[in-house]
Amino acid sequence: QVQLVESGGRLVQAGVSLRLSCAASGRTFSAYAVGWFRQAPEKEREFVAAINWSGRETYYADSAKGRFTISRDKAKNTVYLQMNSLKPEDTAVYYCGATLGTYSQVSAYPYWGQGTQVSVSS
Fold first, then answer.
1. List of residues 6+ apart from 42 with CB closer than 8 A
2. 67: nearest Cα among 56, 81, 53, 78
3. In the predicted model, what is the mean pLDDT of the chain?
4. How confident is the model at residue 28 (pLDDT cuts 50, 70, 90)?
5. 103 with 35: CB under 8 angstroms?
6. pLDDT tens readout for residues 31-55
7. Residue 30: its pLDDT value, please?
8. How far apart are CA 64 and CA 66, in angstroms?
9. Do 20 and 119 touch, CB atoms closer than 8 A?
10. Angle at 105 (CA atoms; ends 104, 110), nearest 5 degrees
């Protein structure tokens, strides 16, 4: 079992930076890749970024490339999503998930956190 708790979301103005955290527990967590997804109202959950179990491989959606950075602190069992130059269209609930499968597919993630709200005003 893996438990995930997101934090760091809040209301910000466009152009600023924000860092989200995904704190994990569970003795097998180190074997899992972690992904960040987001879900805006009335839209499907979409892939944002992922990092593999070692932290050496990262993957990004086109919308996140160049602005977002995912990282992993294995000692703290925490994965971060640094978001720069935020835009109003980044407004969504952000979820982290843990998977042994395909990084970009929602269905591949058996474990999810409760989500954290990010709101970007123009």
1. none
2. 81
3. 96
4. confident
5. yes
6. 999 999 999 999 999 999 999 999 9
7. 87
8. 6
9. no
10. 115
Three-state secondary structure of 74-87: CCCCEEEEEECCCC
85, two tokens: 């130059």
CA distances from 40 to 20, 91, 94, 108 (A): 17, 7, 9, 20
Q: How far is CA 14 from the centre of its chain?
A: 19
d(CA 13, CA 121): 5
Angle at 40 between CA 116 and CA 10, to 5 degrees: 35
As a whole number of angstroms, the distance between CA 88 and CA 52 comes to: 29
Ordered DSSP codes for 7-64: E---EEETT--EEEEEEEESTTGGGSEEEEEEE-TTS--EEEEEE-TTSS-EEE-TTT
